[in-house]
Specification:
Blueprint: H1 6-17, E1 23-26, H2 33-42, E2 47-52, H3 55-68, E3 74-78, E4 93-99, H4 114-127, E5 128-138, H5 145-157, E6 164-168, E7 180-186
Parallel strand pairs: 1-2, 1-4, 2-3, 4-5
Antiparallel strand pairs: 5-7, 6-7
Length: about 190
């Protein structure tokens, strides 16, 4: 693990919390690294749903999962994460993983947006089982990144503490608007 990389660090937190063989959601598929990680947790008995709005993300993820032997463990959905409630029932998901922003190596003009990201997190909370967790990697920058970050953090502050524990982490010695890892635990 490279502890300075937000995604690696989030994976380690998820690994110690997630039950084996569960139902996991990668809400922002990208190049498939989170999807592959969740497939490793799912094992033969679990399942992963992964969302992205770009065909190139589906193709890259399908290739990565094939290389790792995880092809049968994930359903890759060409759909926005704000529609996850169409695919999962309330209180059915063990872990949901978000990496906001744009597809690494892709078109930076295509990125997550405050309105759809907020809807996805809200619907994700409804989908989580009691004891389930959500990991958010919130990036600043780009055309909507700062607005999305502020919108998400304000929403998270408003969540009832008796229902959801929200833990925000931050880099103290890193400049240039570092990403913000946030973990939510549903009670």
């Amino acid at each position: 693990m490279e502890p300075s990389q937000i995604t690696d660090w989030c994976h380690e937190i998820i690994r110690i919390q997630a039950p084996a063989g569960g139902l996991y959601v990668d809400a922002t598929m990208g190049n498939g690294k989170d999807t592959a990680f969740l497939c490793s947790l799912a094992g033969e008995k679990g399942h992963v749903l992964a969302f992205d709005i770009q065909r190139c993300a589906i193709d890259a993820t399908r290739e990565l999962l094939g290389q790792k032997g995880y092809a049968g463990r994930a359903r890759l959905l060409l759909d926005g994460h704000e529609n996850l409630d169409r695919y999962v029932a309330d209180s059915s998901v063990d872990v949901i993983c978000f990496n906001f922003g744009y597809l690494p190596g892709g078109d930076h003009r295509i990125a997550t947006a405050p309105k759809t990201s907020l809807a996805a997190v809200s619907k994700g909370l409804a989908a989580l089982k009691s004891g389930g967790m959500m990991s958010l990697c919130i990036y600043s920058g780009g055309d909507t990144g700062f607005e999305e970050k502020e919108c998400l953090l304000e929403y998270l502050k408003s969540l009832p503490p008796r229902e959801v524990t929200v833990i925000e982490n931050r880099y103290l010695n890193r400049g240039n608007h570092p990403p913000v890892p946030v973990f939510l635990y549903k009670r």
